[in-house]
Amino acid sequence: MSGLFITIEGAEGVGKSTNMAFITSLLDSLGIDHITTREPGGTPLAERVRTLLLDKDEQVMDPLTELLLMFAARRQHVEELIRPALAKGQWVICDRFTDSTYAYQGGGRGLDMQAIETLEQLSLGDFRPDLILVLDLETAAGMSRARARAELDRFEREDEAFFNRVRQVFLDRAGQGAPYQLIDAGQPLIDVQAQIRQVIVRLVEHRSVAP
To answer: Around 46, how many Cα atoms within 13 Å sit in the side-chain half-sphere?
Structure first.
């Protein structure tokens, strides 16, 4: 049986890293073989692209160049790491995937959504996550968290209007229903993780009874 592909999405400061660690611990407790990865990145080539994309000194990168680099890294990531892991029956938990491209390059940068969809189809075909957890938080609160934790990367240096557009795209996509699950990241962490646990356990139970 092939594994499941779960992505964690959201704007800056929503708690993706903290909740990735929680999901990893939960899957360990359930005896589910899994790997974690991230975007952009996940493979040696894609990590080099990540360095370019996040470099705070790369201030003049053209938005379309940024978009193409994202999909180049993603294609390599999927073919080299994600698909093989799923084929072995492992679950793959990924910090960001294509929804972030719609949110950041589409919403934030204002690139054409149809162009993003075309690149998604060209590079991924019908490959999509089985579950997409969208962590949502008020923009100002997320930016405050991001600024408090470390030096800001190229994306984190954008203004509040940029991140308002990013957040709205995430909310719009989460409103489409399955495979999306919207999580209120403004709750106390214990409540956020209780909601995530419920979603994951339900997925495991459904998987165990599937024909």
So the answer is: 21
Instruction: Please give the single-letter amino acid code of residue 43.
Output: T
Q: What is the DSSP letter of 61?
A: -
Contact status, residue 23 vs residue 91, Cβ threshold 8 Å: no
Reported as type and span, the H/E element at residue 133 is: strand 131-136
Q: What is the DSSP letter of 3?
A: -
Chain segment 193-209, per-residue pLDDT in tens: 999 999 999 998 887 65
Per-domain residue ranges of the chain: 5-209
Contact 25, 200 (CB under 8 A): no
For the chain, the 3-state helix, strand and coil shares in percent, each to the nearest 5, are 55, 10, 30
pLDDT tens digits, one per residue of 90-114 = 999 999 999 999 999 999 999 999 9
Q: Cα–Cα distance between 203 and 141 in angstroms, integer? A: 30
What average pLDDT does the structure give for the chain? 93
CATH 3.40.50.300 fits 5-209, yes or no: yes
Q: What is the per-residue pLDDT across 3-42, written as a single tens digit (0 to 9) for each?
A: 999 999 999 889 999 999 999 999 999 999 999 999 999 9
* Interatomic CA distance for residues 51 and 34, integer angstroms: 25
